[in-house]
Every structure is written in structure tokens, then in C-alpha cells.
Amino acid sequence: MSGADARGSGDGGAVASRRSAVARLRLTRVALAVAATVAALLWALAAALATVLVLVVIDRALGLSQPLRGAAIPFAAVVGAALCLLVAWRNRGVMRLLDVALWIEHRAGSMSYALVTLADPGAGERAELEVAVAGSRWTRPLAIASARAVAVPLAASLALVMLLRALPAPTVLRLAVPRPGDVLAGPAAGRRDRLAPLVATVSPPPYTRLPSVTLEDPATIPGVEGSAVVVEGRGDPAGLRARVGDSALAITRDGDRWRSALLLPPQAAALRFTDGGESRVIVLAPFADSVPVVTITSPARDSVLRSPPRGALRLEANLHDDFGLTSSRFEVIVTSGELETFTSRTAVVGAAALSGVRDTTRDAVLPLDSLGLQPGDVLSVRAVAADGRVPVPDRGASETRTWRIARVGEYDSLAIEGAPPPGGDSSLVSERMLIMTTEALQRRRPHLARAQVVGESRDISRDQARLRRRVADIVFMRLSAQPTGEESEGEQGAAPQTPAQVLAAAEAATARATGGVATDFSEDESPVVAVNRPLLEAYDAMWDATRELDIGEPGTALPFMRAALAAIQRAREAERVYLRGAPPRVVVDLPRVRLAGDRAGAAPSGRVPRTAEPRLPPMLAGRFARDLAMLLAGAPGAAADSLQLLRVDALDGSSEFAAALDTLVRRLRAGGDATAALIAARRAADAGTDRAAPGLARWAGVAP
Predict the structure, then answer these.
(1) What sign does the CA torsion over 141, 147, 149, 152 have?
(2) Fewest beta carbons within 10 Å, which of 35, 258, 301, 459?
(3) pLDDT surpasses 70 at 569
(4) Would the CA dihedral through 554, 557, 561, 562 be positive or negative?
(5) Treating both helix axes as pointing N-terminal to C-terminal, what angle do 3-62 and 97-107 enclose, rounded to 10 degrees?
(6) Residue 260's pLDDT is what?
(7) What is 188-287's CATH number?
(8) What are the helix and strand counts (H, E) for the chain?
(9) CA distance 199 to 180
(10) Closest CA to 256 of 330, 178, 341, 186
(11) What whole-number distance in Å separates Cα of residue 276 and Cα of residue 607?
(12) Facing residues of 362 across strands?
């Protein structure tokens, strides 16, 4: 071998040796990086576990709120991540090859910085450096350092896990997995804690398909009427008392807790718990399951036909219920004849079972040829839907659509301009349909339970009441051109008018319309009065029928309903008034309308608006003033209970004031600053409102 070849061979061996040393150095860097990463993660785990342990101890001693407990795990994760980043930053030197070489030479014996020099890419005399490093081994120092870096945080994490496992499981789960109702697993301070905290579980009726709701320390328990409510607290139930109004509730024991069960009443009430001299008041705020809302869209209106129709009639209706519909159908009644000699036929079209949908559209086809309609017949159609309420479902019905076939020769008596059928016709058909429905219920009564009889009777009563209000509106519209029936009165907060009140109001309106002419004459009374006198008698009979139906006595209501039908028939046969030619032009006195004229030569009077009526009844306002005095006297607990009782009465008609009281009571019981809530409640109590009234508002000093 030549000298050149020998030098080449020697250079190749040196290169191989150098690569081997650098490769060992890089593997060492990877091992140190892995150990540093594992150590950082273990320190993060130990920090998170330590944070959870500290929070569990604080919660066990003081009782953290649910929002704070919900933030415990995210807070522990943030603490662990922060420590992980800190450890990684301190060990960042493992990523630099020169620092790793220095670390090895410091722990594996002096190599006269040969390894450090090899780590420098620009170093010369590689062969001599490789020879100096070739005999050095640093596996043992690497293993010891890696084990020490991992062992300490691992031991700390295991110790913290053992401490957490030694604590009661409910205590740890209360912080790790917070959920409504676990407030009862918090710390107990003695007897007084039997009334604080409390947990209420509200389970709606199954037919509503609503989930159960758990409330912690509730001031108000809302829910569907008839929902099952279970109130729980800590401690022995001995000595505890619970009442809803005048009714006492049973309190039972369940392990280390007490519980009391009840059903939400139909109206707002106060649930009071007493423990010796201490008490706790919770407002029960139920809301009723509404009756299904049914709107018939086809046929769109009532009609009078010259000849019996042929073909098919499309029926369509929109249905809605707040919780779900169970069935729907179209009811058809065909009546023939007059007065008490009429006959009727009933049929059901498009009956279907529904699977609890809240909104749907139902349609059906009614074959008119199969009904055999003749001149003088009346076809009535309505849509009916039922919900899943138990034990008796609520039924909702649409308006009745009426098709009347003209009698033979009806259009030969008088040629007049086309006009819609008078209101009496629609009322007549509706009253006949109600009579037939009531008679059917009376026939089925021996085979039905009392609750079902009362439920269906009240459904008929609601239809009868709607018809009664329509008759009242017809009377007043004819007499004074203003709908002053009982429905408009109800919108203003007044009670429904009695028959005597309606009759008196109608006579007063007739006197105004006829220039003061009395209504008690017979032969020479005006045609308008002659038409409305039978309608007033029908209204009186409908009132009596509604009263009997409300108490579940359909048989007793039938005579009144037949009397109303006869009165409506007399109104139909009364003399009509037809306007021939165009009506006279109405001249408007603009100064009088604008209230700018004078009266009997006097100067124009100023217009002063009415004083706003108070929002609260005087009794509620007085009670609120006494509760505020109690609060200012330094008794916030007693004031909170009294305000809760006031809120029960305010829920019926003063919803804004009741909502303000709810916020005020929550602030008082939380022990925080209740100034803003108190101001809001005072404003809600003192604010006035102008109640809506038909027509123009009254002004002082203006001639009627």
C-alpha cells in the first residue's frame, strides 16, 4: 500500500470515528429532551392535583358556590400548564448540542473539552479529538440524571392522588363534576342549616315531555300546573313544619337529609318551612297548560248559496299546542227545518291521532254529494284538537264556518244589494250545534266518569260563553256602533257583565240612538229595538246555560239553551231595515272634533289629561310600605319572607312588580348590596299607567 493510500485510509477512519462521537452526542441530547419533557408534564400533573386538593379542602370548610366549583378544574389546568411551561423553559438547554457536551464533560470525567470541540462544526484536528473521546462513556450519568428528573414529580403526583382518594368521594365529585343539587353535599354548620341550603326538583307531568329541573336555594319554583316538586334539605326532619296556604305537608327522612313532596297548585301560593323560630318562604309560581289553538283556514268564510252545492269541500286547519297534540278531527253538522222542528245530522271527517307535535296543519275532503243538502239546510263545520293533558285532555275548537242554502223563493220577495248574512244566522247555527253536542254528552253521561263529564261540559261552556259575547257585541254594535260587550270590558280588567247590566246598558244605548225613546213599547217600537229585544233575551238564557255547564250539569243547561235558540230565531224573523239609495253624507264639525270650539259663548276650555291610575291596588301598596319599614328597621330576613308573600299576591295582576320583588328578595338573602333592586321595586310600585279604553280618552272641561 502506498503512503497516499495509507493517509487516505487513515482519514476515512477518523471521519467514521468523528461521526460516531457526534452521533452519540445527538442521541444523548434526545434522551435528555425526552426526560425533560416527561418531567415537565409530571410537574404539571402534580400542580393540578395540588390545586384540586386545596380547593376541595376549601369547599369542604366553607362551601363554594356552583359557579366557583365549575371553574375549579379549568383553574387547576391553567396552574398545571403554567408550571409545565416554567419547567420546560428552565430545561431549554437540552436543545443545544454544545450545552449537552458541556453537561457530559462535567459529569463523565474530564475529556479536556475534546467533546465540546467536536460539537463545534468548525473545529480542526478531528482525528486527535476522536481518539480523546473514544474511550469515554456517559451512559450511567445520563440514566441517573433522567431518573432523578422524573422520579420527584412522579412521586409527588402519586402522593396527591392517594390523598384525593382518601377524601370522601361525594366531596371530590362535588368539585370535580359540579351539578345542580350537590349543594347539599357541602359543609354543615349546625341546626340552622336545615333550612339553608335547600334543593327543589321539579318534574313536569309526563305528557309535557319536559325534563326535570333541579333548583338550588330557590326563591321561586316555576313549573307546569300539576308538576311534582320535591324539596330537600340537610339534617333530621324532627321539628320541621311545611305548609302551602292552610294545608300541611309531610316531611320524611332520606339518609342524612329530609324531603317534602307536593304538586304545584293551580294558582300562585307560598310554601313555608319553619324550624323553631326560623322560617323560609318559597313562592310557587305555576302556569297552566293552554288549550289547543285551532284556526280553520278552509273554508275561509261563511256563505249563503242559491242552490245545494255539489262535489267536494276541502277542509284545512292550523293546530298549535304548547306541549303537544294527541288528536284532531273536523266536526260537521247539517241542520234542516225551523224552530223546534229542526233535525240534524252529525259527522266526523279527517279524524287522526297525532304523536305529540306542537304545530301542524290538518286537511280533509268533505264529499258534499253524500250529505244530500236541500234548500233551507245549514252546513256547519269546525276543527277540533285535543292535547295530552291527564286525566281529562283539553280540547280546542276553531270558529264555526257556516254554509246556508237559500230557501225556495227567498230571493223573490225583495231585490236588495248583496250583503253578508246577519250575525243572528251564525249565532243560530252555533247554538244548534251546542245543543246537539250537549244532548250527546247527556246521553253518554251514565257511562262516563264525573271528571270527564265536568271537563267536556266546561268545554261546551267555553263555546257558549264565546257565543254569548258575540251576541252582546251584535246588540251594542246595532245600538251604538261600539263593541261594548263583556269581552271588551274584560280586557280592561273589569268583571264580565251580568244580564241585568247588559240589558240596562243596551236600553241606555238605545235611548241615545233613538233620541231618548223608551224601549218598553211593543207595537210602535222601532225595528232596530224589535230585533235587539230577542237577542237580549237570548243573552240572558245563554248566561244561565253557561252557569249550569260550568258545574257539570248539561241536562239542566239544555232548557236555557233551547230558550236562547228560540230567541235567536225570533230575532231572525223580525222586520229588517234596508237602506234604499246612498246614505246621507256625514258633515264633520272640525273645530268640535279638535276641541277648539266654545260652549255657550264661553272661552275655549283647557284640556287636562286624566291622572294616571296606580299600577298597584291600595292593599298591595300598603303591604309593600310596611315591608320596606321592616327592612329599614334592620330585619332583612323577616322583610324577605314578607316580600315573598307579597309577591304571591302580585303575580296575579302585577307581573312587573312581582319580577322586581323576586330580584329584591334574592339580593336580600344573598347578603349583598340590594340598593339597586330596592330602587327598581319602588319604581315598579310607584309608576302609573293609563289603562286602555275604547274610543277617545276623557278630557276635563270638554262638552260631550
Answers:
(1) negative
(2) 301
(3) yes
(4) positive
(5) 90
(6) 94
(7) 2.60.40.10
(8) 19, 21
(9) 8
(10) 186
(11) 61
(12) 317
For 629, the grid coordinates are: 319599614
Determine the pLDDT at residue 123.
Answer: 53
369's CB contacts (< 8 A; 6+ apart) are 310, 311
Residue 253's DSSP bridge partners are 258
| pLDDT tens readout for residues 445-473 | 888 888 888 888 998 998 888 888 888 77
Cell for 208?
309535557
Q: What is the C-alpha separation between 95 and 34, in angstroms, rounded?
A: 11
Predicted confidence (pLDDT) per residue in 133-180, tens digit? 666 677 777 888 888 888 889 999 999 999 988 888 877 888 888 877
- pLDDT above 80: residue 374: yes
Would you state the pLDDT for residue 18? 40
Does residue 692 contact residue 491 with C-beta atoms inside 8 Å?
Answer: yes
Q: What grid cell was written down for 536? A: 237580549
Q: Using DSSP bridges, classify how beta strands 269-275 and 343-353 pair: parallel, antiparallel or unpaired.
A: unpaired
Question: Domains of the chain: which residue ranges?
Answer: 3-176, 188-287, 297-411, 421-580, 613-689
For cell 223573490, what's the residue?
Answer: 412
Per DSSP, the residues of 99-151 read HHHHHHHHHS---TTHHHHHTSTT---HHHHHHHHHT---HHHHHHHHHHHHH
Instruction: 295-302: list long-range contacts, CB under 8 Å, 24+ apart.
Output: 295/398, 296/381, 296/382, 296/383, 296/398, 296/399, 296/401, 298/363, 299/381, 299/401, 299/403, 301/401, 302/401, 302/402, 302/403, 302/404, 302/420, 302/421, 302/425, 302/426
Domain 297-411: give its CATH code.
2.60.40
pLDDT at residue number 352:
93
How many residues comprise the chain? Answer: 704
Helix H or strand E encompassing 18: helix 3-62
- The conformation of residue 281, written as its DSSP 8-state character, comes to E
